Amino acid sequence: MLLLVTYYFFIPFLTKGVITDLGLNTHAGFVLIASIGTLYLTMPLTLTYFKRKGVSFKKQDINFILASPTSPKQALIYALSKEVYINLAMQVMFLMAAVLVFTVPFLTSIIYLLVNIVFSNLLSYSLAVIMYASEEITLKQKQWIKRIVYVVLAMFTVFLMTMVVSQTLESGFDFAYIISVLSSPVVLMIPIFGWQLGWLNLIMLGPTPVRLIATGLFFASAIGLTFYAYRMKVSGEYYEDALSFSENIALLESKKGDISLTEAFGHKKKNYAYKGELKGLKSNVIFHKQFIERRRSKKYFLGWSDFIYLIAGIGLGLTSLFWDGFIVPDYFLEIMVGLSIYLAVFFRPSADWKSEFKNHYLFLMPDSPLNKLFNASLLEHLLTFVRAIFLVVPAGLLMRVSLLEILYAISLNVLLKAMMTYVSILIEAIIGAKIGHTFASIISMVVSVIIMIGPVVALFFTQTLSTFLIFTAISLYAILVLFLFLYLSSINLRNIESLEE
């Protein structure tokens, strides 16, 4: 949690350069980013309370809070209050960003922060209590309310995208147009969340009749809903659902991150009929076993998370077409390698090799530890190759770069990700068994950043050296580090005891 809070504090400094380059370091830019966060992050999160999810009671809460004479409302407020310090850290982050990045006066930023802390928390807490614990609104009615909100959000998103694309084709891309749409009366009059944006627009962009009305409704709704939640009768009907949700969260936490995207969103893991056939010599059978297991868990072998790379690749390509000067084709290799570095260090979906370390047969197979590790991670390399194609090919074709550059970018994506895979195996799985997985994850992140300094330094010479030389240098570096960590992992993976804490 300390690392997360520290990361929040560093976000304004990390993003200042990009925001300035985009011309968003203004009051209007702050309104744009805060509006998108409210509509697409805060609103969906709040809607989870309709299904009595989103509020997590730990085991000790179940035994000591829900079983005590504490009222159901107090128990709910107690569970919600656990996130106060994170919310406060986010508010401080917005304050720092407003002053240091978006050039908002300090006094204006303080007023916005204080009002947000008081009224936004009153609003979110009261909404949570009403949605989560109300026994006057039936579950069917809650479902209908949630669906209506999602439909409105989807319709608005389609409308916004349509207008932006048509405006871009007509006169070029301009953030000012998006800001004007998000600050329009249609958005500010959206109940609860739009009213909250009314206060944001009022304090940052100045008064207009619509903004004054929306702000008044924001304050009135916060006070009114808080009073309603205080007077509302709650007998504790939500206890059973809260207990079920908390048990599911505890189960997911016990897996130590080894969960699918479906499970993370609270759904049961699906299984599909696929027989397959185990084959392969010695430890090569591990790869075929993983392939069969993936076909049974994924209907078409690839999952939705894999197609995110395809969407990102198309998005990058279209951005270079419609937004002159923002993404330059001359820097195609740097962009692709930079993306692969970021994804390899900070975006780590659950890997299939993690499940192999739980199987004792891994240590009984008549093969060398190095071959076992390679075959246990072979499917991961295959998926990395597919994802690299999804990301690089559409971006490269739309940016009209050479086929050779596309091949270079795909190869470097695969090599850098493979390198980080073996770093993770050594530090998180093997060393983590001795020092604890949480501490090992932190060490792995630090080591990953240090190791990636080599490729980053090489990218600075792309304008002075040939693309082939840069590709060769990064490839040789990645292969060297890859085999080093693969070897270190294999000599430490002799028996099952090497993976026990």
UniProtKB/TrEMBL annotation:
Which positions, given as ranges, span the membrane? 27-50, 84-104, 110-132, 144-169, 175-200, 212-230, 307-324, 331-351, 378-399, 406-427, 439-461, 468-488
Name by which UniProt lists this protein: ABC transporter permease
What the entry lists under Pfam families is as follows: ABC_export
In its UniProt entry, the species of origin is given as Alkalibacterium putridalgicola
Q: Which domain of life is it from?
A: Bacteria
Keywords attached to this Swiss-Prot or TrEMBL record, sorted alphabetically, are: Membrane, Transmembrane, Transmembrane helix
